[in-house]
Amino acid sequence: MSPIAVVTGTTHGIGRVTAIELARAGYTVAMLCRNVEAGAALQVHIAALVPHACVRVIHCDLASLRSVRVCAQTLRAQFDRIALLINNAGMVSARRRMSVDGFELTFATNHLGPFLLSRLLSDRMAARARIINVASRAHLRGKLDLERVRDARARYSGIEAYASSKLANVLFTFALARRLAGRDITANCLHPGVVATHLLPAWLRLVKPLISRVMFDVERGARTTLYLALAEQVGTISGCYFDEHQRVQAASPLANDVELQESLWRASERWTSAGS
């Protein structure tokens, strides 16, 4: 069987390009989609581009811990070993909203869902597997107040929520890489650049000042993700943050704070019941 790649957020943007290119590279691609109809349409599109591609569409709403658990059970039933896990999906809300589990929605979708998915699949990762988290340069402006994550009445800024969730992505990546040391599995994160699509979403207009003045098309935006997924020269590199030019860069001082990494890990395990 061809190697398995699990990718979230494939129905648009760089996730869509990532799924297509991994199919071209010979991977069986499991596309985790909140909108399964859009996922099915992409599956048909990939089949037309890559006639022998093997693509699966699996429902997953990262904002729902129950949905993530059901998705992980489906993946475990279908696949013995996973070569790539790419946590690509992301969002931000212009107003404060709470997830079905009672967490601020941007944090729930961008961090807690991917955290739980990664934990539930960690024992199914193949030798030389790679876990790739799509973070953002916005993490450089991020702060993390774990007390506010469950406070529905806390002051809210969409920009701050996004930056905090991206900081959580980097903190999680570094803590995960430390735990994977010696297992022949790598974990890295990246800033993809600001990606222009045919319709620039409102949330990206909110956070664009945090990220870059230069915009990439989706093919260019997917380049670092695909580099970390496919390039031989990064097969043994772990615990790094890459920029949109496929270069290792220094993450923020907060992202490198081991105590904060561990605090977030413990809170995330408690909130998601990942250890049970």
Description of the molecule:
This protein is an alpha/beta fold and 276 residues long. The chain has one domain: 3-Layer(aba) Sandwich (Rossmann fold). It has 9 helices and 10 strands. Strands 3-2-1-4-5-6-9-10 form an 8-stranded mixed β-sheet, with helices on both faces. A two-stranded parallel sheet has the order 7-8. The chain is globular. Mean pLDDT is 92; it is low at 197-201.
Residue share in helix: 40-55%
Which word captures the global form? globular
CATH class: Alpha Beta
**Oligomeric state of the chains in view:** single chain
CATH fold-level assignment: Rossmann fold
Q: Which structural class is indicated by helix and strand composition? A: alpha/beta
Give the low-confidence spans.
197-201
Q: Return the domain count.
A: 1
Count all strands and give the number: 10
Mean pLDDT: 92
In spatial order, strands of the major sheet run 3-2-1-4-5-6-9-10
SSE run:
EHEHEHEHEHEEHEHHEEH
CATH homologous superfamily (4th level) name: NAD(P)-binding Rossmann-like Domain
Question: Could you give the distance between the termini?
Answer: 31 Å
